[in-house]
Amino acid sequence: MAFAFDSRRIALALLAVATSAVLIWFGTGLFPMWPLMWIAPLPVLLFATRSSWWAAALAAFAAWAVGGLNLAHYFTALLHAPLALRVEVAAAPAVMFALAVLLFRALLKRGAWWSALVSFPAAWVSYEYILNLSSPHGTSLNLSYSELNFLPVLQLVSITGPWGISFLLFLFSSALAIGIHLRTTAPKQALRIVSATLGVIVLVLAFGVVRLASPAAPGQEVRVGLVASDLPANQGVAAPGADAEHLFRDYAAAAAKLAAQGAQVIVIPENLGLVVDPDAAATDAVFQPLADKTHATIIVGVGHVAAPLSYNEARVYAPASPVQLYAKHHLLPPFESKFTPGTTRLTMQEPKGIWGVAICKDMDFTQLSRQYGETGAGLMLVPAWDFVLDRFQHGHMAVMRGVESGFGLARAARGGYLTVTDNRGRVLAETQSNSAPFATLIADVPAVHDTTLYLLFGDWFAWVALAVLSLALLRLIALRGRSE
């Protein structure tokens, strides 16, 4: 009889782990299916309500660790991440998930149902926020990116930043688990908890629908042109001298065609070729006359060596103006360790609004985008370089920055997408960079700045989550004498 009972418990544990792991695998990663993360924690939470603490911890850790293996190939084969980093990426969120489940279980078992409800999402958001502050990869593994295609929910980041979406995802599973646990012993309380949670979600969806339906502030549209090439000869960084000059002239020819179609600003990908002083003048001689002739502003990504320093740089060629420079702030280790991080922003006051310039990974960080939003930027121009496999996830992370801080986006990436979005996160035009020898895209985007609550108050919601977590821990301490 004992053997049968243990077998049943083991089977339930394996079922919970397998179900949550599958949902996490397909609900996160490089190509997330957005509905799945709403229920991914639920099987493990349900198992935790009827198991010992160590079994709950083991199940939660295993579920997240297995589900998180969906990024193993990306970190190993493409990013060539060191073993220590790969272990950290796999283990740290699994440990945090297990701790959050244990906190949920402990409060629930001691009758602190409302504390259990909010402690689970608060613990996770606190972890994400602290990781964002300490990691060179910023928000790159944040759960909110699983909802990029769910536009009504995406609008929540204009109030809370990415932290609000992560909280909402875990809140939903937390409420369902509590409702199922209390359905026979305290049905009215179960109904209150589930109803309150659903009410919050309905309010979020209603806000998102209204925000998407309401027109943005009036402003003139800008015709942007994007160009990128994934030809084998153009895959790396062109060597200084003849190779770089030849590549720049090919891109200039494609840019000239976009300008002929009315493009007012043209974005070319990052780090196309290496420019070593004093040869930067030769590069400028390719693009500045083109800008002067076509009256289009051209942004070109290069690696610029100005001994003793070197920069991953965007060179901005505006008609009849001196060349302006922007150096990438957030560099990707170890690939860009040779570059010196930039420290200044670049904005352009244009007749059709304020334009800002950033480069690729810069858009993984909320703070830099907020700083551009605070200057009134209505359009961000972003040269980029993705790894093909991450073209959707990393390529669209920048879209969330626009919703948070109120600007449209024109992003041109090698190994990724040419993407134009508005300040609501709607994709106005998009094509893959390998769709032609020199893939091009032209689209009209409102260069309209939208002042958001997140722009005004920053990471206030993350601090609320930290406070809620602290109160939940104090509540647990106060109940430490109460048996489960």
Summarize, please.
By secondary structure, the protein is an alpha/beta fold. Helix content is 50%, strand content 17%.
Characterization of the model:
By secondary structure, this protein is an alpha/beta fold. The protein is 50% helix and 17% strand. The protein contains 16 helices and 13 strands. Strands 1, 2, 3, 4, 5, 6 and 13 form a 7-stranded mixed beta sheet that branches. Strand 1, helix 11 and strand 2 form a beta-alpha-beta unit. Helix 2 packs across helix 9, helix 3 packs antiparallel against helix 5 and helix 13 runs parallel beside helix 14. The longest helix has 27 residues. It starts with a helix and ends in a 6-residue tail after the last helix.
Label this structure with key terms:
484 residues; alpha/beta; seven-stranded mixed β-sheet; six-stranded mixed β-sheet; 16 helices; 13 strands; 50% helix; elongated
